[in-house]
Amino acid sequence: MFATRLLTLLLLLACGTTTQADERLFGIACRSVHLGYPAPEASAFYNRITPRQTAEGTYFMVCGWNKGYFGMQELADGKKVALFSVWDPGDQNDPKIVPEERQVQVLKQADDVRVKRFGGEGTGGQCFLDFDWKLDETYHFLVTSQPDGNRTAYAGYLWLGGDQGWKHLVTFSTISGGQPLKGLYSFVEDFRRNKVSTTKTRTAEFGVGWVRTLDGDWQPLRSARFTGDSNPATNIDGGLLGQRFFLSTGGSITSDHGTLREVYSLPEEVRPVLPSILDGAPSADTLK
C-alpha cells in the first residue's frame, strides 16, 4: 500500500533509519532514494531539479510533503509529464469506497491538464500535464498551502518562464486537520519494475530549495538527509554535490559520494540567494 509506504518514507526521513531489507524488490526495480529536508511548517515550498540521466518508468519527484507530491515522469512509452498528486485521508486503496465528503476536492484546474481519481497506492486526486522536459535543463516547481478549517488547499505551479511565468496546474483540497506544508522531501523512483529497468541509471540534482514560513519569510533548505527504501540493492548514491543535492540509482552506480542516513549540509560560507522567480510568487490564498 502506498499510504503505508508513504508513512514509512516519512519515518525514514525523520529518523534517518532504513527498514528491514525486502528481497522481493531485488533485481526487479531500482532502489528508490530520497532527500528529506529539515524545515519549519510552511505556506509554500519551492524546489528545482536538473535531470542528468533518465529511463522509461522514472519519477523525479521534486516537491513532496506529508499529503502529496509534485514532480515529473518519463512514462513506459517515453512520453513525459508533470504530475501533482494529493491523498485522501485514510489507508484505503479502492477510490470507490471513499465517501464523497472525504475525497480530495478540485478547487481549480487549468484547461490543458487531466485530473482524475487514483487508487491502488492509497487514494486521492492527481493532475497530469504533458511536459516534454529534457536532460541537463533545470525546472522549477512550487507548492502552496492554505488551511481552511479541517481541510487544506494545496496548489501546484510549474515555472514556464517568459510571459507565461508560473503556470497554475491545479488546486486540490484534502482533509488534513488544517495542516500547512510539512514533512518535505524529494525522491527518484523506478516504477517500470520489469527487471530490465534495474540496469538503467536515473540521476538528478535538486535545490537549493526554499520554503515560505508561516510568518511570510523565505528560508533556504540548507540540509538534506539521504535515505533509501527497503530494496536491498546497493547501486545507489546521493547527498551533496557542489552546492546542490543529488540522487542516483540503478545501472552501474556506486556509492562514491553519499552514505545512507547521513545528513548533508551546505558549508556555512555558502549563502543561497532567493531566486528572482520567487519575487511575487503565487500566494497561499488559493481559495479565492
Descriptive report:
- This protein is mainly beta.
- It has a single domain (2-278), classed as Sandwich (Jelly Rolls).
- Helices cover 5% and strands 45% of the residues.
- It has 1 helix and 19 strands.
- The protein has one helix at 2-15; strands at 33-37, 42-53, 58-65, 68-74, 80-87, 105-109, 114-118, 124-130, 139-148, 151-161, 165-175, 184-190, 202-206, 210-213, 218-220, 223-228, 236-241, 244-249, 263-265.
- The strands form 2 sheets. Strands 2, 6, 9, 10, 11, 13, 14, 15, 17 and 18 form a 10-stranded antiparallel β-sheet that branches. A 9-stranded antiparallel β-sheet has the order 7-8-5-4-3-12-1-16-19, covered by helices on one side.
- The radius of gyration is 18 Å and the shape is globular.
- It starts with a helix and ends in a 23-residue tail after the last strand.
- Residues 1-5 and 14-21 have low confidence and may be disordered.
